């Protein structure tokens, strides 16, 4: 029998734990599946599976062989897919999932430019602040904000980094005073997520090293867009992600505070089910997404990028004049702090 096919059959049997289920998945008879595994064992001169009337289990040799064979088959399929993909144009429905706030404020321009470039692909975007199983729910691509996805079948790739910014309205600061250090937040009403979603204690890094404070919430909300609205109404001091309030900071609606201190960064990544058999629509969208956020990072490193238009060109500073790519970077902290790294725990920011 074909050795490569026997290897594929063995992997399927091991994954499903049954000759019968493997036969169904491969559209083969149970006898043929059994023969493939038996021929493989005969070729190797060792037993790979322990068989009883009730269950199958891998032998020690079978466990080692399975791990190595899986890598061989993955590499082979990857090479074949790479060659085949060159002859396939992006087409069909592209299912994308992203957190609500990030999707509303930062994803639309990327999807719009991709749709213009690849008109035969129809983006289907879902916004959700919950754990998403990409494979089970049939998504092609997922955007993760400050979240880790642990799965052998999921591939993740860094897109960019956001920043948490302490801010308030000019009117609020005029009435209540301006905080100059993290401890000052204890005397101000704060706007934050509930503790179980990353609120409560805040860890700042600044001239005095690490400073931990537990601000008193004036109001809590599980959605940062709602917290932004509260902040714009002057209800207190808010701690919000840069991609959400970039235009507010640029226009002066919100004022950045505690410029000598910074909070952990927000890692933003892209996830997709597998490198194998990656459809052209997924591959091209990933490339497009990565290129977009690379331009974002480059733009954010330009000190002119986050300046209001009035400061750059002498014209009025309208928030909507600023490109989205100017709003993801750190608009509040000195340049020397821009390379510090860290993550936050919440997935709803």
TrEMBL record:
GO molecular function: DNA-binding transcription factor activity; sequence-specific DNA binding
Domain called HTH lysR-type: residue spans: 1-59
Keyword Transferase recorded: no
Keywords assigned: DNA-binding, Transcription, Transcription regulation
Superkingdom of source: Bacteria
A GO BP entry: DNA-templated transcription
Biased composition, class Polar residues, residue ranges: 339-349
PROSITE patterns (alphabetical): HTH_LYSR (PS50931)
CDD domains tied to this protein: PBP2_CrgA_like
Region listing for Disordered, in residue ranges: 329-349
Record-given protein name: LysR family transcriptional regulator
């Amino acid at each position: 029998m074909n050795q490569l096919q026997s290897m594929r059959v063995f992997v399927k049997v091991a994954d499903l734990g049954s000759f019968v289920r493997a036969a169904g998945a491969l559209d083969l008879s149970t006898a043929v599946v059994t023969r493939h595994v038996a021929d493989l064992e005969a070729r190797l001169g060792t037993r790979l599976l322990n068989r009883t009337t009730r269950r199958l289990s891998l032998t020690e040799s079978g466990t080692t062989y399975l791990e190595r064979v899986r890598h061989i088959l993955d590499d082979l399929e990857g090479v074949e897919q790479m060659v085949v993909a060159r002859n396939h144009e992006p087409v069909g429905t592209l299912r994308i999932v992203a957190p609500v706030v990030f999707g509303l404020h930062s994803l639309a321009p990327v999807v719009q430019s991709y749709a213009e470039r690849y008109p035969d692909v129809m983006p289907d975007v879902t916004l959700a602040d919950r754990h998403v199983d990409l494979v089970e729910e049939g998504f092609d691509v997922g955007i993760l904000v400050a979240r880790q996805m642990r799965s052998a079948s999921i591939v993740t790739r860094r897109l960019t980094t956001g920043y948490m910014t302490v801010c308030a309205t000019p009117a609020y600061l005029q009435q209540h005073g301006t905080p100059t250090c993290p401890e000052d937040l204890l005397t101000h009403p704060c706007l934050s997520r509930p503790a179980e979603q990353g609120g409560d204690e805040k860890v700042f890094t600044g001239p005095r090293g690490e400073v931990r404070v537990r601000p008193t919430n004036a109001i809590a909300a599980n959605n940062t867009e709602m917290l932004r609205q509260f902040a714009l109404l002057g209800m207190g001091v808010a701690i919000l992600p840069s991609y959400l309030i970039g235009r507010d900071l640029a226009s002066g609606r919100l004022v950045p505070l505690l410029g000598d201190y910074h909070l952990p960064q927000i890692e933003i990544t892209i996830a997709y089910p597998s490198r194998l058999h990656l459809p052209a629509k997924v591959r091209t969208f990933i490339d497009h997404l990565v290129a977009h956020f690379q331009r974002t990072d480059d733009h954010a490193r330009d000190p002119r990028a986050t300046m209001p238009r009035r400061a750059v060109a002498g014209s009025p500073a309208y928030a909507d004049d600023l490109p989205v790519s100017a709003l993801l970077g750190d608009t509040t902290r000195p340049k020397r702090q821009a390379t510090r790294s860290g993550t936050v725990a919440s997935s709803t920011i």
